[in-house]
Amino acid sequence: MSHTGSVLCLNLLLFLHVVTHFRSNAQQQWPVPYRRVDSRPAADSFCEALFPFCPTGDSDGRIPSMRDSDVISVYRLQTPVWEFKYGDLLGKLHIMHDAIGFSSSETGSNFTVEWYELFQLGNCTFPHIRPEEYAPFWCNQGAACFFGGIEDLHWSQNGTLEKIGELTGNQFNDMAQWVQDDNETGIYYETWTVLSDPSPNATVWFESYDCSQFVHRTYRKLTELGAKLSSRSQTNYTKIYLFSGEPTYLGNDSSIFGQPALKNLAGDIRTFYHTFRPHQTFVDFAVSLLEAYEKVVLEKSFYLYYNFEYWHLPMKPPYIQITYEEVPLP
């Protein structure tokens, strides 16, 4: 091929790359849909929980069948995160955990179902930076837990325990099958909801996927099955927001951390997450807070991991916000 032909070919390839780039941006769906999987993989043995996941229940979310003649009461459950350890401390910050309770009129048996992190919130929000692996290592699975009983004091002392409806046995059984299917395909926890700004008409870039979202999905499924749900009180839930301009897609582990041409980006992502590493001393933690402030507020930069892929968020005031806001029952 002649020199002129080579140049024309190169220009054509560059043009096609630019066209593809703009086309992909134009077709980007907001919020980015949460990606489900065909089946839940086993968690890596490196990931360890400070408190065991689902210690007294079925960690696969399996729920026993009920007779159709049974009447199942449905309860809205809410309590401060880690209430068993810190009481109402996190409740004062409106950082709440949500679940659903059920009670059988025929047997008198009570049950609780909840969806939460396998390895605690910190591991689901930020990765481990391991010397032997260049890509950040995530322990961010979440799952459903079903167990017998409703711990009345745990939910009612600093939170909520309220009956909001009733089901037939068949409706309960259909919901139980849906919980297993939902649990098998929605496997990773996402802490952040990312918005363009704090206004009511803000663009939602990314939705969280956490305990309250599981509760909302389950309530919607119950209403699809014919249940009538109502509450005498305002149904508020915790939301943790990040605020940013339009996010930029960066790639996945292999496309970022396996490419020498992107070593600067890979290094920047590792440095960013190193700031939020676990098990820091008090002095290291104080330094990390300053580093986080510099990166997120002064440099207006945040790296989000979503659907096993990395995105860059150009941060905007107020940067981060924790709210306790109403989400009506369906």
TrEMBL record:
- InterPro entries given for it? CLN5
Q: Can you name one GO molecular function term for this protein?
A: palmitoyl-(protein) hydrolase activity
Q: Where does the record locate the signal sequence feature?
A: 1-21
Pfam families given for it? CLN5 (PF15014)
Its UniProt entry gives the catalysed reaction(s) as: 2 1-hexadecanoyl-sn-glycero-3-phospho-(1'-sn-glycerol) = 1-hexadecanoyl-sn-glycero-3-phospho-(3'-hexadecanoyl-1'-sn-glycerol) + sn-glycero-3-phospho-(1'-sn-glycerol); 2 1-tetradecanoyl-sn-glycero-3-phospho-(1'-sn-glycerol) = 1-tetradecanoyl-sn-glycero-3-phospho-(3'-tetradecanoyl-1'-sn-glycerol) + sn-glycero-3-phospho-(1'-sn-glycerol); 2 1-acyl-sn-glycero-3-phospho-(1'-sn-glycerol) = 1-acyl-sn-glycero-3-phospho-(3'-acyl-sn-1'-glycerol) + sn-glycero-3-phospho-(1'-sn-glycerol); S-hexadecanoyl-L-cysteinyl-[protein] + H2O = L-cysteinyl-[protein] + hexadecanoate + H(+)
What would be one Gene Ontology cellular-component term for the protein? lysosomal membrane
* Keyword Cytoplasm among UniProt keywords: no
Q: Which UniProt keywords apply?
A: Glycoprotein, Signal
Domain of life, per UniProt, equals Eukaryota
Gene Ontology biological process: lysosome organization
Question: What does the record give as the function of this protein?
Answer: Catalyzes the synthesis of bis(monoacylglycero)phosphate (BMP) via transacylation of 2 molecules of lysophosphatidylglycerol (LPG). BMP also known as lysobisphosphatidic acid plays a key role in the formation of intraluminal vesicles and in maintaining intracellular cholesterol homeostasis. Can use only LPG as the exclusive lysophospholipid acyl donor for base exchange and displays BMP synthase activity towards various LPGs (LPG 14:0, LPG 16:0, LPG 18:0, LPG 18:1) with a higher preference for longer chain lengths.
Family note:
Belongs to the CLN5 family.
Instruction: List the protein's name.
Output: Bis(monoacylglycero)phosphate synthase CLN5
